[in-house]
Amino acid sequence: MPPLRVAILDEELPYPPTSGKRIRTFELLRRLARRHHLTFFAHRHADPAETLAAQEVFHDLGIRTVVLERPLPPKAGPAFYARLARNLLSPLPYSVALHAAPAYVEAVRRFALRHPVDLWHCEWTPYAHILRAAFGTELRQLRWTVMAHNVESRIWQRLAAVERHPLKRWYIRQQHSKYFRFEQWAYSHATLPIAVSETDARLIREQFADRPVAVVDNGVDVETFRPQRDVDRDPYHLLFLGSLDWRPNLDAVELLLERIFPPVLARVPRARLSIVGRRPPHWLRQRCARLPNVHLVPDVPDVRPFLASCGLLLVPLRVGGGTRLKILEALACETPVLTTPLGAEGLDLLPNEHLLLADTPEDFVPAILDAFHRPLPLQDMAAHARLHILQRYSWDLLAQRLDLLWQQTASAAPHPTASLATPPPSVPPAPADL
């Protein structure tokens, strides 16, 4: 089949690949760019130099970029809370309204007038609203896919379940309701919704759209993430790894600092915890500086040295969706992993064969103490897991899967509900000050 002309809508250029979402997007697109003509729409990074570096990388890959000179607003400060308050008047979830800048909508509309596009690909669910705002009734004539990195409404539902502050819990529930309605529209009207696990695909089919939902799993670069035999592991070195500007990760870090690591340290004074991730909030920096044997390491260019030297990766998630790339990367490096059932959700991994599971924060403590005393059996388990990762989660295999889905979707008949795609008056494009 001839190469496709694919236009991709997303929040930022996924480079440097410093978060799970960025890693997935970058690894798949750099492989698909060898076969297809790709154009990537994005907001400018907060750091203009980072944007330029990302554009150079994408140019070298043969991917055209359309970058709006408008960074996404920060998730802190008085202006952030003012935007949250204004969103109470919007029918759209906050993140959908935030990303749907009129300039972005206009850039997509202008590009479509000048360039033929075989397939539109929304790399994150909120960007389906950009297509709706840009094309209106013409959306029925387009072929488009939407990538569900997470089922976002489920994340908000889980956040509400663990939030203790009544006002915050009420606001989170409002966001859950808005996201549920928005995802119902997006998954019902896309030519093809794509999930990152069969668990999420089943949820989308059951709750939002009784129709086929494709799956392209998260993966790992098995050549980059590999065991480092010349590095000695410290079995008493515990590691948390993840973006520290994402609410589910911050919830997990709070569990570590409040309910998991203190009792471990009380029993084993030589234990130490490293928290590695990008964009940590100021409160987390201050808190870690006051705690014994806790080290916050922000914005590292390469996480592999930490995966090579730690004795155990901790993933105490109780909020989230999709699947965790950091677990796949750790196991590819033969790093033992301890997580919750939710942390392992959607991954084809077996407890006590590929990784360790603990149901509650309190269950993490004895599991960690036990791991201190048997590092060799855990290392054997992680080595067995790497063999499974090689066969199941290579980016090369997953890129081939997405390539096939793109080709099938580009040649598909319009989805029968696409005639309902016109945005109602109650769902306008986001105002400029968002």
Total count of strands: 13
On the 0 to 100 scale, the average pLDDT is 92
Separation of the first and last Cα atoms? 42 Å
The low-pLDDT segments are 418-434
Biased composition (Pro residues): 422-434
Protein name: Glycosyltransferase
Keywords: Transferase
Organism: Thermogemmata fonticola
Outline the structure in words.
By secondary structure, this protein is an alpha/beta fold. It has 2 domains: 241 residues, 3-Layer(aba) Sandwich (Rossmann fold), CATH 3.40.50; 159 residues, Rossmann fold (3-Layer(aba) Sandwich), CATH 3.40.50.2000. 46% of the residues lie in helices and 15% in strands. The chain contains 16 helices and 13 strands. It has a 7-stranded parallel sheet with strand order 3-2-1-4-5-6-7, with helices on both faces. The chain has a 6-stranded parallel sheet with strand order 10-9-8-11-12-13, with helices on both faces. α7 packs antiparallel against α8. It is globular and about 65 Å long. The chain starts with a strand and ends in a 24-residue tail after the last helix.
